[in-house]
Amino acid sequence: MKILISADMEGATGVTWPADVLPGTPQWERCRSMFTSDVNAAALGFYDGGADEVLVNEAHWSMRNLLLEHMDERVRMLTGKHKSLSMVEGIQHGDVDAVAFVGYHTGAGTEGVLAHTYLANSITGVWLNDVRASEGLLNAHVAAEYGVPVVLVTGDDLTCVDADGYAPDARKVAVKDYVSRYAAVCRTPARTAADIRAAARSATVLAGRRDPVTGGEFTVELEFDAEHLAAAATVVPGVAPSGERRVVYTSATMYEGIRTFKAVTTIVSAAVEEQYG
């Protein structure tokens, strides 16, 4: 049994504001250990449940945040940027039996601690086939295309509610309760590690490859906080204006859809000016 852990940081234990997740800040340095604790707890739980292999794919910002030296010695970690499938890199090789979304968060334009979708502020909303989409929803569709079930989701309490929509059978662990975008009632790392480990162990019964979900057409619409960012996005072939500060594109597969999404966000990031966005 091989488990892939897609590890994001905004939904980690103790994380509540931007400095907690921005590489190089003192707060980020402090929160890295709690992020690592969450991910390691998930890995230990999967091993407890009978997993033979756990591959952790770093999915936050620089994708160089986790402390490898504090992980269980059996874990392998994929770290660094410029990966074909970004947050779920590794799922495409046909040897993954389940995926866990650890440290996830809610999507742009919704309630949730540090809620966003890929870009912290510039994207104000994302819709997949007219359904408002979080990163979890987008990545779950990619996973389904490869026949890989989502078996565990951790984050704030609203992230768990969001996950009920795209992975209803998955085990969920709330490590904090939403108060505002920058405030939460947090559980201690000792408590969340125990909760995540127990949930991961339970989640192994859900592992096992499924029939790939194919035949869909995926329409993705994005809304930005400035018109020039929408214009910048249309540089990507197939991306067209769809309304005020909005663009849309359609892909035959979610593999293509998530790669186009990555291209759009990369170009838009380069078009953001420091003070005015």
State the end-to-end distance.
45 Å
Number of helical segments? 6
- Order of neighbouring strands in the sheet with most strands: 3-2-1-4-7-8-9
Main sheet overview: 7 strands, mixed
Q: Which runs of at least 5 residues are low in confidence (pLDDT < 50)? A: none
Structural class: alpha/beta
Compute the average pLDDT.
Answer: 98
- Taken in chain order, the helices and strands follow as EHEEEEEHEHEEHEHEEH
User: What percent of the residues sit in helical stretches (DSSP H or I)?
Assistant: 25-40%
Please state the CA-atom Rg, rounded to the nearest Å. 18 Å
Let me know the number of strands: 12
Shape: globular
Percent of sequence in beta strands: 15-25%
Keywords, separated by commas or semicolons:
globular; single chain; 277 residues; 30% helix; alpha/beta; 6 helices; seven-stranded mixed β-sheet
